[in-house]
Amino acid sequence: MLLWSLLVIFDAVTEQADSLTLVAPSSVFEGDSIVLKCQGEQNWKIQKMAYHKDNKELSVFKKFSDFLIQSAVLSDSGNYFCSTKGQLLFWDKTSNIVKIKVQELFQHPVLTASSFQPIEGGPVSLKCETRRSPQRLDVQLQFCFFRENQVLVSGWSSSPELQISAVWSEDTGSYWCEAETVTHRIRKQSLQSQIHVQRIPISNVSLEIRAPGGQVTEGQKLILLCSVAGGTGNVTFSWYREATGTSMGKKTQRSLSAELEIPAVKESDAGKYYCRADNGHVPIQSKVVNIPVRIPVSRPVLTLRSPVAQAAVGDLLELHCEALRGSPPILYQFYHEDVTLGNSSAPSGGGASFNLSLTAEHSGNYSCEANNGLGAQCSEAVPVSISGPDGYRRDLMTAGVLWGLFGVLGFTGVALLLYALFHKISGESSATNEPRTPKSSTLL
């Protein structure tokens, strides 16, 4: 009877052991949720239950519970089973073993570049290449590119390509990319790749002069343009005057040319100049350029020259106009009132003259104008009064001489008259003072 009871109990325990089953999904990809269910046909009382992977205990519960892997990764692949510990010795059970293999949703990305040694200033195309699982071709991915732990451009994008319009020497460094699902469950990073940007040395440095009207003029703006035919990266431009050798200015910028401006040129700025350019290699110097400075004419002075003090009709009058400052050649215009008389040039600078044969109509104001192509300047007006013709002037002179002679003769006559009168008075005085002689009388 006791033996029969033991056989019944053993048979019940065996039946319960066969009913402990681990249920798991048959196909799992990265990012999927995995739910493990440990099930028994009868809800017998247990002290604890546990889930195991590769003979390592994962989690323990006091009652039948599911085990959840929120987002599967490749390392979650393995052999799983569950176990229970019953209240009786013979109720300790172990489930069947389920092999779970987590499949790769997409491969680790590979960073490719149009060139890993691009020329400075040129474009570079980066691509983050990966392959989705054939069973999950519909999975949506987004991509991001990095350089030296810095995110490039605007961050994550649905495009696996990144176009960089221009790279510079400071862009040299380690690059990589990352790909992730739009649900952010799975993210994978590529290996790092080194991109070394190649700098091109500068070449053919030249200095160019830019001035209004094409000529350097005192008081106006002057631009010294330093340029290079080739070269990349930041270029340092500097300008020099040959006479002193000291730097007039310096600019560093990412371009093939730079300008130095002189706001108002002085006469002393005339001389020889050159510039240098340097982008980290050997500095290159331009040829020396001579810069002449043209001087506008100053206000001229008009001088009238005549053989006699009083100009008269028929005299030759010389008009001399001279500007004390101004680059040659200088053209002088001569005016009577507002009428042009003529012109004369001074090819080497200085003044110029114009001769005029006077007529009665030449009285009035005279002026002159100086112009060397940099602006005209007018003199002050000089008044001229013209007397009568030459014969009339001689008659006047004759009349003057005669009047002078008459004056001398008149003076002489008056003197003689006074002299005679004086002697007459003196004679009468002498006769009065002599003794009187008695007159004889005749008696009849």
TrEMBL record:
Signal peptide, first to last residue: 1-19
Any single GO CC term annotated in Swiss-Prot or TrEMBL for this entry: external side of plasma membrane
Keyword Thylakoid: no
TM region(s), chain numbering: 401-422
A family per Pfam: Ig_2
All copies of domain Ig-like, residue ranges: 109-187, 201-290, 300-387
Record's protein name: Fc receptor like 2
Keywords: Cell membrane, Disulfide bond, Glycoprotein, Immunoglobulin domain, Membrane, Receptor, Repeat, Signal, Transmembrane, Transmembrane helix
Keyword Membrane: yes
Gene it is expressed from: FCRL2
GO MF terms held by the record: protein phosphatase binding; signaling adaptor activity; transmembrane signaling receptor activity
Subcellular location, record wording: Cell membrane
One GO term (biological process): immune response
